[in-house]
Write a structure and sequence with these properties.
Elements (H helix, E strand, L loop, with lengths): L1 H14 L1 E4 L5 H16 L4 E2 L2 E3 L2 E3 L8 E4 L7 H21 L5 E9 L5 E4 L9 E8 L12 E4 L4 E4 L6 E5 L4 E4 L6 E9 L3
Antiparallel strand pairs: 1-11, 2-5, 3-4, 5-6, 6-13, 7-12, 8-11, 8-13, 9-10, 9-12
């Protein structure tokens, strides 16, 4: 576990975007994907919105993914294992990088065929509590033709990151503009934010 944490932190410090290819173990990724698919089949996922001055609106010209917020109170075994992993990562991050993370929020995200999310920042103008964005992918057997890559914009570089199963991507919410390119197959992930506020 510590290796994955070091891998993502060291690559973040070097390139402002941290990547760990096996942040989730294969068994946990499989069960989380199964949970996501089950929720999707029950139509529990809802069209994601855009927050603006505390109001939520939907604009499918900007984003067209569907989401379901994770909650420890649901007492799902594998989601609790996921939260244990995040708790350990936050503890490691705070102790090694003095980041003062106090809370987090995560949701499942599913992009149906043809879905996308245009270029954006993750931090709200009216709320700066989101410090780090973190994405964990659940796409077994991903190939380039599937699409749905994460496109990351930096001053001197544009980076294209494949959404492969078990991979984690980590960056500052207020600094890194990014977009999800059009996906040609269902694209699944857990997306969240590490926060300085409770």
């Amino acid at each position: 576990m510590q290796f994955q944490f070091e891998e993502i932190i060291s690559s973040f410090l070097e390139k402002r975007v941290g990547i760990a290819n096996e942040f989730l173990n294969a068994d946990l990724a499989f069960h989380l994907k199964s949970n996501l698919v089950s929720l999707y089949e029950k139509e529990a996922l809802k069209l994601a919105g855009l927050a603006n001055n505390h109001a939520l609106n939907h604009n499918e010209k900007i984003r067209s993914d569907k989401i379901f917020w994770l909650d420890k109170a649901d007492n799902n075994h594998h989601e609790l294992l996921f939260f244990d992993l995040i708790d350990a990562f936050v503890l490691y991050l705070n102790s090694t990088c003095f980041t003062a993370i106090k809370s987090y929020e995560f949701h499942y995200a599913l992009y149906e065929q043809g879905a996308f999310y245009k270029r954006h920042l993750d931090q709200f103008k009216s709320n700066n509590s989101r410090v780090f964005s973190i994405i964990m992918y659940l796409n077994e057997g991903w190939i380039k033709e599937d699409g749905g890559e994460l496109k990351v914009y930096q001053e001197q570089e544009i980076q294209i990151i494949s959404p492969e199963n078990q991979k984690c991507v980590f960056f500052k919410s207020n600094e890194i503009e990014h977009e999800v390119l059009v996906t040609n197959v269902s694209r699944m992930s857990i997306t969240g934010w590490l926060k300085t506020a409770l």
